[in-house]
Amino acid sequence: MPLSRVTDVVAGLVPTDPLRRKLIAIRLAESIGKGVFLSGSVVYFTLRVGLDARQVGLGLSAAGLSAFLSSVLFGVIADRVGARRLLVILFATLAVGFGFYSLVDSATAFFALVVTVGFLEYGTGPTNGALIGNLVPAEERVKLKAMMRSVFNIGFSIGIGVAAVAALSQRLLVLIPLTTAALMAGAALLVTRLPDVPPRPAPVGFKRFAAVRDPRFLAVIGVSTILASHVSIILVTMPLWALNRTDLPHFLIPLLLIINTAFVILFQVRASRGADTVHGAGRLARRSGYWLAGGCAVLAVTALDDNVVLASVAIVAAVLILSVAEVMQAASGWGLAFGLAPEHAQGEYLGAFDLHVITQNIIGPAALSGLVIAFGFWGWLGIAVAGLVASALIIPAANRSAVTLVRETASASTT
């Protein structure tokens, strides 16, 4: 891609509207902080705190499991007290929490703090989504989310660089949690500069936690979990496959994530076109499943031949194909989440919809990696078939959920 095109894409991520610029700035501060901490946390807890690999892994897994509760819970709270107010509280509390990491000196303190911080951190997603739902017109939400995701990848990459510098010296390691704490405090300050929109009152008869009690909405989440398999494949399954079942040079494996990150930055906004309605988002989700299946089919080829050139070409091609699936599925997910959420319950429904990514992050790496390592070619084909089945199911599932939403909203209003 020409350099001028790259420059245009990056420049396009800076909106001319002051409100959207503030939202983008908040996302950038948050993403740099997460990049610093997530990329440097294992080094920090191992070398400075003195924990072993098992303790660090167990703590981070426990923090991830807390997301099943916090994502929906904080979404409901955002609908009740106001998304802006809650987001300020969450970012401010996270700043304190990350700051406390610099004082941790035992496994017990680590476990208590990592679960608490993780619980709060997973609440920022639906709260931020509800804030966007309050401040931005419906037809512009998906595009803004796409811009914010590209910005997140840029910020996360910057954060990785900061963490790498901090890891150069034992004395500098403390900058990992402290830098993250400062950035979270900065994000909280930026949120206070946004307009304060009061929460929308719920219609008479509307029940809280309706999102997780609606089987048709849960069906959309379940199908989306399969379509989001690209998350686990790109981050875990494909690197493990390349290391254990191919002769791909090891130095190429980290480059795969760089290719994926650059692709998302450049093409996420373009991929979001047409996903601002339930119908358009459903069609985009269906196409993402086709690309997911295609990427897995290409990876299956590497199980049939040990040629290193073939494996290298196939894996790089698979990264690009799966990256297409990723940007399509992400955009379709925002369109479905916003489109299927009642205006007065944006936080709750967005928090529930986030469960498809949370589930994939927790279950996907072990399940998909175990499948392909054990069954090789047929394992990859099995994931491809699952992607095609999910593609066939997503539009009918979304349409049924949309009908239920209209019917229940009308019923609640009438009551």
TrEMBL record:
Pfam families from the UniProt entry: MFS_1
Membrane topology classification: Multi-pass membrane protein
Lineage: Bacteria, Bacillati, Actinomycetota, Actinomycetes, Micromonosporales
Transmembrane segment boundaries: 28-47, 59-78, 85-104, 110-131, 151-168, 174-191, 217-242, 248-267, 310-337, 377-398
Originating species: Micromonospora inaquosa
Protein name stated in the entry: Major facilitator superfamily (MFS) profile domain-containing protein
Transmembrane as UniProt keyword: yes
Entry's localization field: Cell membrane
Annotated GO MF terms: transmembrane transporter activity
Cell membrane found in the keyword field: yes
Domain Major facilitator superfamily (MFS) profile span(s) in chain numbering: 19-399
GO cellular component, one term: plasma membrane
Domain of life: Bacteria
